[in-house]
Amino acid sequence: VSAVDKSTGKESKITITNDKGRLTKEEIERMVHDGEKYKEDDDQQRERATAKYAFESYCYKMKSSLEDDKVKDKISDDDRKSALEACNEAIKWLDANQLAEKEEFEHRQKEVEKVCSPIISKLYGSGGAPAGFAPTSSAGGPTVEEVD
User: Fold this and answer.
1) What is the Cα–Cα distance from 76 to 104, expressed in whole angstroms?
2) Per the domain annotation, does 15 fall within a domain?
3) How many CB atoms lie within 10 A of CB 27?
4) Residue 39 belongs to a domain
5) Residue 83 is part of which domain span?
6) Contact 105, 59 (CB under 8 A)
7) Residue 117 falls within a domain, yes or no?
8) What's the CATH code of the domain at 90?
9) Which regions are flagged for Basic and acidic residues bias (predicted)?
10) What's the per-residue H, E or C state across the chain?
11) Which tens digits make up the pLDDT trace of 123-142?
12) How many other CB atoms sit within 10 Å of the CB of residue 111?
């Protein structure tokens, strides 16, 4: 910006910049680099959390289904007790191992599924599948992420 005093003819110039509080180019580049560096860790944490949630959800859904009065009459007490025991042990393990790795959550879920799936199959065979419950597999369909 420049200004001229018409009576004296004196001229002044000043440059106005908006740099206060802004990041430098180097700081921005460092932040982008750090973001890329930690992306893999973030992806691993997301996968771990997804596996944990899937395992926890499976256990609670199975436990709820097995405790449903409509289901109790359609499976044997021994089957129901063994499945409930597997679910309760899994939930107890989950409470004690919140920071386990993705592979451990998946392994534990498969172990519970080995106990529960045959029982649920018997239940389906008798035509009495619990509402909203279907056998799951950790190797199911693709994971869909919403991207902006």
Assistant:
1) 30
2) no
3) 10
4) yes
5) 23-125
6) no
7) yes
8) 1.20.1270.10
9) 7-46
10) CEEECCCCCCEEECCCCCCCCCCCHHHHHHHHHHHHHHHHHHHHHHHHHHHHHHHHHHHHHHHHHHHCHHHHCCCCHHHHHHHHHHHHHHHHHHHHCCCCCHHHHHHHHHHHHHHHHHHHHHHHHCCCCCCCCCCCCCCCCCCCCCCC
11) 777 554 444 454 444 445 56
12) 14
Cα gap 118→113, rounded to integer Å: 8
- What does residue 3 show for φ and ψ, rounded to 5 degrees? -140, 145
Q: How many CB atoms lie within 10 A of CB 122?
A: 14
Pair of tokens at residue 8: 């004296």
Q: CB neighbours (10 Å) of residue 113? A: 19
φ, ψ for residue 128 (rounded to 5)? -120, 45
Q: Give yes or no for a contact between 55 and 106, defined as CB atoms under 8 angstroms apart.
A: yes
Count how many domains the chain has. 1
Per residue in 74-123, pLDDT (tens digit) is: 888 898 899 999 999 999 999 999 989 999 999 999 999 999 999 888 87
CA 1/CA 90 separation, integer angstroms: 71
Does residue 19 surpass a pLDDT of 70?
no
Average pLDDT, the chain: 83
Q: Give a yes or no: residue 31 inside a domain.
A: yes
How far, in whole angstroms, is CA 126 from its chain's centroid? Answer: 34
